[in-house]
Each structure stands twice: as structure tokens, then as C-alpha cells.
Amino acid sequence: MTKQFSLRINEKLFEEAWELSPTEIQTQRGLFELALTEFVNKYKRKNLNDIRDKITFCEDYDYKALRVGKGDVDYDFG
Questions:
Q1: Burial of 34 (0-12, 13-18, 19+ CB in 10 A)
Q2: Is residue 74 a contact partner of residue 57, using CB atoms and an 8 Å limit?
Q3: Mean confidence (pLDDT) of the chain
Q4: Which residue ranges make up each domain of the chain?
């Protein structure tokens, strides 16, 4: 579904966004879709400050060992 809009935007801001956009963005519509996608994704992410001090880890928790190819680690979370 698409909607058609007529927008008045800050020309300097648009030009800066255009210059910073990835090379595969070749249309104004593409730039606006990218900007809206980034906006939505930003506000959907959980703010990490909201969960600060709410997570407790096992004393022997080693996040580095859980990375792919860093060894076999079996934690018992039960």
C-alpha cells in the first residue's frame, strides 16, 4: 500500500540526507522510505536503559566464550 504526499521540507536537511544516503538510493522516494524505515526501527528498539539492573548473569557467565567458533560452553540456566 502506498500513499501520496506533498511535503514541504527543509532543503538543506534534504540535501544533507541525500549526500549521506547509500549509493543504491537513487530516488527521492527511496530516500524517504529509508528515512521512515530507520525512524521506525529506532523507536521499536528496546531502550537498554529501561532494562538496566533487571538482568542478572550467572557468576561463571562468559559472553566471549559464547561467540561462534570460540569454544563449546554449556551453561545450565535451570
A1: middle
A2: no
A3: 82
A4: 11-66
Quote helix, strand, coil % in the chain, to nearest 5. 45, 0, 55
Evaluate whether 73 touches 65 at the Cβ level (below 8 Å). yes
Residue 61 cell numbers, joined: 557467565
* pLDDT of 68 strictly over 80: no
The crossing angle, in degrees rounded to 10, of helices 11-20 and 28-44 is 80
Residue 42 or 66, more confident:
42
Instruction: Return the closest-CA partner of residue 7 out of 28, 23, 38, 30.
Output: 28
C-alpha cell, 7: 511535503
Whole-prediction pTM value?
0.55
